[in-house]
From TrEMBL:
SUPFAM superfamilies: ALDH-like. Gene3D superfamilies: Aldehyde Dehydrogenase, Chain A, domain 1 (3.40.605.10), Aldehyde Dehydrogenase, Chain A, domain 2 (3.40.309.10). The active site is at E269. InterPro entries: Ald_DH/histidinol_DH, Ald_DH_C, Ald_DH_CS_GLU, Ald_DH_N, Aldehyde_DH_dom. It comes from the Bacteria. The keyword Oxidoreductase applies. It comes from Thalassospira indica. This is Aldehyde dehydrogenase family protein. It holds the Pfam family Aldedh.
C-alpha cells in the first residue's frame, strides 16, 4: 500500500538521519576533532513539519567556546604552515565527502530544518561545489611587486586573519555553513561556526566530514548553542579576529557593536525586501512563474525573496489572476515527499510573525487574493504550514511592503512607468536584491543600473552561485560572501620592504666610521 504524506510524517526516522554523523546519538559541538557535549541549559530541537520536539541537547556555553578557540588557534597554525596546494587538495576532498554523503545530509537537513527534500538535495550539492570552487583558488592567492620610487624591493603578501567566528541562520543551515566555511579555510583561517540553535545538526555534520577529508583538528569548530550565551562568548572572544554574521539587521547591529569593542571587523549579510519589477512588455507567463519562485520557494524564508512584486498597471489584473492561480496550485506538504514544493515555516516564532504581518496588512487595507491560511488537513494538520499568500491593493508605505516578512507572502504593488518603478524599488531601507522582467534590452539595463541592490536579475530571479559576489546595500549589510570578493574578506595584505642598494643612503641618524 502506498504511504500517504500523513503516514510519512508519523514514521519520520530522526535517528536514521543522524546516524552517519552522530555515532552515539549525542549532539554537541564539534571541537578539536570530536563531539563535545555542552554544559548549559537544555535546547529542544523542533520538527517544523510536526511542531514536536525530537531531540534535546545542552547549550555549549563559555567553557566549550574556550576549548574551540584554543583548538582553532593551534589548528590555524598547522593549516597555514601547509602549502597552498595541500590546503586546496583537502578542500576538494571535503567537497567529495559532501557528495558521497548527499542523501544522508539531505535527509538530515529535511527532517531537522523542514526544507523539502527536493531542495535539500540541491543545496547539499551546492555546498560540495563551494568547497571545490575555493579548492581551486587556494594556490592562486598571491601578492604584487610594487615599483616603489626607492631602492627597495616592495611586495605584498595576502595573509589570513587567524580565527574567524561565523554566525549562520536557520533558514538554510548547511548552505550558509558551506558558504562561509569554504572561503575562510581557502584563505588560511580557522573557522569557529555557530549555527542557529534551532538547526545545528548539518553544520556539525560538515565538521565531522571535514575530518574524514583530512582537515587538521581545530581548523573547523562548530558550536551547538544559544546566541545570547554561546554566540556572544564566541564573537567577543579574544581569539576572534573577524566576525561574519548572516541574519536579521537587528541582531547584526548588536554583533557589529560587540565586535567593534575589540576593534574586530565584520561582514554582515542581513535582510531584504527585494523588488521584483514586471513591465507590460515582459513575457508574462515566464514572469509569473519567476515571481512564484522568487517568493514561494523555501516557504519565502530567503533573504533575497522577491517579496515586493511591482507590476505595471496596464497588465496588473491579468498578472494578478495568473499569480493567484499559480499560488493556489503549488503543492504544500510533507518535506519528505518529493512532490512537495513548499514545506513548513521553520519555527513557531517565525510562524506567528508571518501571520501577524498578514493581519497587519489586512488592517492597512490590503486584500488577501490567495492563501493566508493553513492548508487543509493531511500532512499539514500540525506544524507550521501556510499556503502561499498573495496580497493585493498594497501601497509601498504599508508595513507589509516595508518590513521583512520571511514567509511565503508577496505584496503586489502597481506602478505606471519606469521612473516610478525605480523610485518604489529604492524606497526601502534594504538593498539586497531585485529583478526586472521586460522585453526591452535598454530598459532592462537602465533599471539594473538604477535600483540599489547588491544582486540584480534580468528576466530571471534567485539564481546565485559561489563564483559571484553576494551581499547588500543599506540595512542589508556590508561586505561580500562569495566569489573572489568574498575570499578577499578573509584575507589582509601585508607589505614587505627589502633594501636592495649596496650602499643605501642614510636618511636619519649617525653612521659610525
Amino acid at each position: 500500500m502506498k504511504m500517504s504524506s500523513a503516514d510519512k510524517l508519523m514514521t519520520r526516522d530522526y535517528a536514521k538521519a543522524m546516524a552517519p554523523f552522530f555515532a552515539d546519538g549525542v549532539v554537541g559541538s564539534w571541537v578539536d576533532g570530536a563531539i563535545m557535549p555542552g554544559n548549559g541549559d537544555d535546547v529542544e530541537l523542533i520538527d517544523p513539519a510536526t511542531g514536536k520536539a525530537f531531540l534535546t541537547f545542552k547549550d555549549a556555553g563559555g567553557d566549550v567556546v574556550d576549548a574551540a578557540m584554543k583548538a582553532a588557534v593551534a589548528g590555524q597554525r598547522v593549516w597555514w604552515a601547509m602549502t597552498a596546494a595541500e590546503r586546496g587538495r583537502i578542500l576538494w576532498k571535503i567537497g567529495a565527502q559532501v557528495r558521497d554523503h548527499l542523501e544522508q545530509l539531505a535527509l538530515l537537513e529535511c527532517v531537522s530544518a523542514g526544507k523539502p527534500i527536493r531542495d535539500t538535495r540541491v543545496e547539499v550539492l551546492k555546498v560540495a561545489e563551494m568547497f571545490e570552487y575555493y579548492a581551486g583558488w587556494a594556490d592562486k592567492l598571491h601578492g604584487d611587486v610594487i615599483p616603489v620610487p626607492t631602492s627597495h624591493l616592495n611586495y605584498t603578501r595576502p595573509e589570513p586573519h587567524g580565527v574567524v567566528t561565523q554566525i549562520t541562520p536557520w533558514n538554510a543551515p548547511i548552505f550558509t555553513a558551506g558558504w562561509q566555511l569554504a572561503p575562510a579555510l581557502c584563505a588560511g583561517n580557522a573557522a569557529v561556526l555557530k549555527p542557529s540553535e534551532m538547526t545545528p545538526l548539518t553544520s556539525v555534520a560538515l565538521g565531522v566530514l571535514s575530518q574524514k577529508a583530512g582537515l587538521p583538528d581545530g581548523v573547523i569548530s562548530v558550536l551547538a548553542g544559544l546566541g545570547h550565551t554561546t554566540g556572544v562568548a564566541a564573537t567577543t572572544h579574544d581569539a576572534t579576529r573577524k566576525v561574519v554574521f548572516v541574519g536579521s539587521p537587528k541582531t547584526g547591529s548588536i554583533i557589529a557593536a560587540q565586535a567593534a569593542q575589540n576593534i574586530v571587523p565584520c561582514v554582515l549579510e542581513l535582510g531584504g525586501k527585494s523588488a521584483n519589477i514586471v513591465f507590460e512588455d515582459a513575457d508574462l507567463k515566464r514572469a509569473v512563474t519567476g515571481a512564484q519562485a522568487a517568493i514561494f520557494s523555501g516557504a519565502g524564508q530567503s533573504c533575497v525573496a522577491g517579496s515586493r512584486l511591482l507590476v505595471q498597471r496596464s497588465v496588473l489584473d491579468q498578472f494578478q489572476e495568473m499569480l493567484v492561480t499559480g499560488a493556489n496550485h503549488i503543492p504544500v506538504g510533507d518535506p519528505l515527499d518529493t512532490a512537495t514544493q513548499i514545506g513548513p515555516i521553520n519555527n513557531d516564532a517565525q510562524y506567528q510573525t508571518v501571520n501577524r504581518l498578514i493581519a497587519a496588512g489586512r488592517a492597512e487595507g490590503a486584500d488577501i487574493l490567495a492563501g493566508g491560511v493553513r492548508p487543509d488537513g493531511g500532512a499539514c494538520a500540525d506544524g507550521y504550514f501556510l499556503r502561499p499568500t498573495v496580497l493585493g491593493n498594497v501601497r509601498n508605505d504599508m508595513s507589509i511592503a516595508r518590513d521583512e516578512i520571511f514567509g511565503p507572502v508577496v505584496s503586489v504593488i502597481p506602478f505606471e512607468g519606469e521612473a516610478e518603478a525605480i523610485a518604489i524599488a529604492n524606497d526601502s531601507k534594504f538593498g539586497l536584491a531585485g529583478a526586472v522582467w521586460t522585453g526591452a534590452v535598454d530598459r532592462a539595463h537602465r533599471v539594473a543600473a538604477n535600483v540599489r541592490a547588491g544582486t540584480f536579475w534580468i528576466n530571471s530571479y534567485k539564481t546565485i552561485n559561489v563564483m559571484s559576489p553576494f551581499g547588500g546595500f543599506g540595512q542589508s549589510g556590508y561586505g561580500r560572501s562569495s566569489g573572489k570578493e568574498g575570499l578577499m574578506e578573509y584575507m589582509q595584505p601585508k607589505s614587505v620592504w627589502t633594501e636592495t642598494a649596496a650602499n643605501p643612503p642614510v636618511a636619519f641618524g649617525y653612521a659610525p666610521e
